[in-house]
Design brief:
200 residues, mainly alpha, Arc Repressor Mutant, subunit A, globular
Length: 200
């Protein structure tokens, strides 16, 4: 969070909180949003373990930089911004790393007597197995991260354009245009499903 503020040319304000105040802020302002944070993280990562790691990282950073949080402001938006920045930083790091494979696990699977030859090796199936049949979730998850994020923040989480602009660190005009484009992409992806359900 501190790096973000410094990049914007702002020095993070430090608020004077004693240890008891910090614990109260954490418990009363941050912890009530834990489920919403997990849902947002899961929709970004599409993986339960990655989502838990991202939420844990977010809350560690929130506690670490609690003195830059102004009590009484929108704590949910503040946490979402930390989570979004953590996700982007982690995504950039992972995209530069080579793919990792546990060869021991693969070898054990194929050397097993119980191996089912028809079984798919596409590990992405596990990530979306609970969503199979839910065309809206599949269509949403197929959008690029930037488009998926604005739809989640606006249409699922109910943030205003102003709050989204702060969370995403982009102008309100960009929020509006990105949301418009994301909705059109989603509508296009769901066109045949809507027709099959009787919508025109």
């Amino acid at each position: 969070m501190q790096e973000v503020l410094e990049k914007m040319g702002e020095k993070p304000k430090k608020f004077q909180y004693n240890r008891q105040d910090q614990l109260e802020i954490f418990e009363n302002e941050f912890l009530p949003h834990l489920d919403a944070m997990y849902n947002f993280a899961y929709r970004l990562t599409l993986d339960g373990d990655d989502a838990k790691d991202l939420v844990q990282d977010t809350y560690l950073k929130a506690y670490r930089f609690i003195k830059s949080f102004q009590k009484g402001t929108n704590s949910k938006a503040w946490l979402y911004r930390i989570l979004k920045n953590s996700f982007i930083n982690d995504f950039r790091k992972k995209s530069k790393e080579p793919a990792k494979v546990d060869y021991q696990e693969v070898e054990n699977f194929y050397n097993s007597d119980n191996v089912d030859e028809k079984k798919t090796v596409d590990l992405r199936i596990d990530a979306v197995k609970d969503m199979i049949g839910d065309e809206v979730s599949i269509a949403l998850n197929s959008l690029a991260v930037d488009f998926r994020t604005v739809i989640i923040l606006c249409d699922l989480e109910g943030f205003t354009y102003e709050e989204m602009a702060k969370i995403l660190d982009i102008p309100i005009g960009t929020v509006r245009s990105r949301l418009h484009r994301a909705r059109n992409l989603l509508k296009e992806k769901l066109k045949s499903y809507a027709s099959s359900m009787g919508y025109k």
